[in-house]
Amino acid sequence: MNGSTIIFYMLAVFTLATAFFAVVTRHIFRAAIFLLFSLIGIAGLYFWMQYEFIAAVQIVVYVGGITVLIIFSIFLTQQAGELLPTQNARGRLFAALAAFCGFALTLLQVYQYKFTNTNEPTVEPNVVNIGNQMLGTEEGGYALPFEVVSVLLLAALIGCIVIAMRPKATEKNIDLGTNNIEY
Amino acid sequence: MEPGLYHLLFISAGLFFIGVFGFLTRRNLISMLMSIELILNSVNLNFIAFNKYLWPNKLDGLFFSIFVIAIAAAEAAVAIAIIINLYRSHRSIDVAKVQEMKN
What we know:
The complex is a heterodimer.
Chain A: H1 3-24, H2 28-48, H3 52-77, H4 89-112, H5 127-134, H6 143-164
Chain B: H1 5-25, H2 29-53, H3 60-90
């Protein structure tokens, strides 16, 4: 049992425990903080696998972006000290049963399957290789998905602004006739 | 025992089904969104583990997780915009109290 193994098990327990508390706690703000720690644990696992780039992306996007977004939306929509409503006991029992059965089935399938790995030389997941392949247009390049994701992000940006925009006062629209939409 | 692919798949399956449990038991839209983030993260962990242990000669798993992260960020932003809009019109983001989608 060397240091790397110990670090792996610590990260695994930390990630799973904080994820579990994030879905069972009844304080929504604590749930967000537990989610934050779980995401940090996953970033630690990426560091453990020596995929530094994806670990940095995980920290920047999830820990720095999405969690802050979630915390701000909690501030905007929840009253302080309010407990989350719970499902009734029967619903919780069935949810736990469904999750446990799915987990057991998945693990059974995974442990029965024999994975075969390649013997070809390893490509280091460093920034130079990632950048060359992501913007490459030759075989195996990801330039087209990159552009599609860019368009998707632009669409999501505009969509968010349109959805969350406070609608104008409706009196202005009354004399427009057919297209007066009540907000 | 030296940790390998199966250990990472165990963590990933655990995270996925914790997320499923949260999604089924929560009634609040923001908590459901948090469960979805857990599920997406377990998928990313799976992609990276397969990339490292089975196909280290390619970087495809890494690219898939980068795209999943980008799409998850877009999805979270749109979902939170919808939730805030819903809170403005209904004063609640409980799924049981919000039963109509039209304004």
